Amino acid sequence: MSLIPSFFRNRRSNVFDPFSLDIWDPFEGFPFSSTVANVPSSSRETSAFANARIDWKETPEAHIFKADLPGLKKEEVKVEVVEGGVLQISGERSKEQEEKNDKWHRVERSSGKFLRRFRMPENAKTDQVKASMENGVLTVTVPKEEVKKPEVKSIEISG
């Protein structure tokens, strides 16, 4: 018996199988495990969604943030610049309605609130932030101030 079952049908997996994605349930087979598995706990629901994955890249013109927020509408997401030039991205995914006769076999999609904050560098124009949402990907663009090259003035040497 394997501790970590494989999602490949004809392949036995073991702890050392890098393609095994399921996790062994130590309570499987106990009388209370079915009641625990059928009712998703709020701590399991929010744990994966609490830390939304966000990429931050800097180009010569702007700071660009991309967040994967599948299943969320733009109305469920908030983008704000708070005190001290901090970009704040937050939102909430609602829990799916549970019917009394439903039997849950697996709950992997997460729900709950998330909040991420990023301190912007001094060259960020936080008053010109733009955000867009397409196919579950939030893109936030924070323009940068142009770097002013120091003016060099040649001084003629007399003598």
Automatic annotation (TrEMBL):
KW Thylakoid (keyword) present: no
Sorted UniProt keywords: Stress response
Protein name per its UniProtKB record: 17.6 kDa class I heat shock protein 3
Superkingdom per UniProt: Eukaryota
Signal peptide: none
Stated family: Belongs to the small heat shock protein (HSP20) family.
PROSITE patterns, per database record: SHSP (PS01031)
Coiled-coil intervals, chain numbering: none
Every SHSP domain range: 45-159
Pfam families to which the protein is assigned, alphabetical: HSP20
